[in-house]
Every structure is written in structure tokens, then in C-alpha cells.
Design a protein that fits this description.
This protein has about 210 residues and is α/β, with parallel strands linked by helices. The chain is built from eight helices and four strands; from the N terminus they run αβαβααααβαβα. A four-stranded parallel β-sheet has the order 1-2-3-4, sandwiched between helices. Strand 1, helix 2 and strand 2 form a beta-alpha-beta unit.
Amino acid sequence: RFYAARGMHGVLVYRPHEVFSADRQLQEIEEHFRESIVQLRQTIDWLEKQEPVDSQKMGTFAISMGAILTTILAAVEPRVKASVLGLPAGNVAEVIMASQDKAIRKRRNAFLSAHGWNAQQGLQQLKSALVSEPIRFAPYVNRSKVFMIMGLFDRVLGVRNCLALWRAMGKPSLAVLPTGHYTAVLATPYLKITTYSFLRRKLSHV
């Protein structure tokens, strides 16, 4: 609504429903990533056909898992001219195995128990299954088209993993919030203005 009120077309893209649980295969995480990227590209296909939309001036704004996926999108989709990546991270397997988030920790422990794996075995299995690791794609992202946001006290993704992705992208523009992952919502007024300014500036020069 904030962007639309200022003359930008906007569309919300909901990812395929996540069904990760102890009785699922690790390969389904990779499949979920791929399905999500295909869905995002299909959305761009649809937007190109909408008469009021300038197909040469399309950008993205995503948060958390959405930002992780949008990092990959920025690397493979030349039609995206600007990307705001809010609270993303690289090393997804390490994020899953080390996150302090209660929901992630609960699923992780149940999965390890169901397969009889220790933490190191689980990490290796995740790394093998997850081909679409954003850090692998990061070098192919044009850093001049990216504005990244991270929380200095992010215990869900881990600051180290956030910085690893930032470095892999060539150190694009970065805003560091004095917050955790979820408490970053307190910075919403600031983020509205800064992300709008970034997108407006980048897309106006396309």
C-alpha cells in the first residue's frame, strides 16, 4: 500500500506452502526453492503483459526466506532491475542447523531424531541436498542493483551468515539495524522511506 500510494504498481507473491517435517525428505527443501523461483519468474511473465506496467522497470522487495530466494532470482532473472533484500542469509544449511528460532529448532531436532543423525551429519546431508544455496548464486548478482538490510542481533539467521551473503554479492549497499530478526519490524517507518527511495532511484534510471 505504501508503494502503490506513491505511484508504483505492486503485487504480493505467496510462496508454495512449506511442508517441512520429520517425515519428509531433504530433497523437498531443494524442490521448494526451485518451485518458489519458478513462481517468481511466472509473476514477472504476467506483469510484463499488464498494459500499465513498464516491463523495463521492475524491482523486488522480499524479507527473510523471501529475501534468500530473491537473491537467487536477482542472479538468474535479468528483468529484475533492483532488489531490496531484507534480512537474508547465505549458508542455508548452517542457518537451519544453528538457528535459535524455536520453530526451526523444534523441526530440526525432530528431523535429526527421526533419521538418527547428529548435528554434523545433519549439516552434511543438508548441504548435499540444497543445491540452490544463495551464496553460489551471489557472485552473479549485480551489486549496484541491490540494497540489503540486516539485523545486528539476528539470532534466527545468524549475523555471520548474513554477512557471508553480503560479501559473496560483492558488498552491495547495506543498512544495519540495531535489532534482531523479528524486532526489525520496529524499523518499519525508516525502511519504508529508504527502500522506496532506493527503488525509485534505481528504476528511474533504467
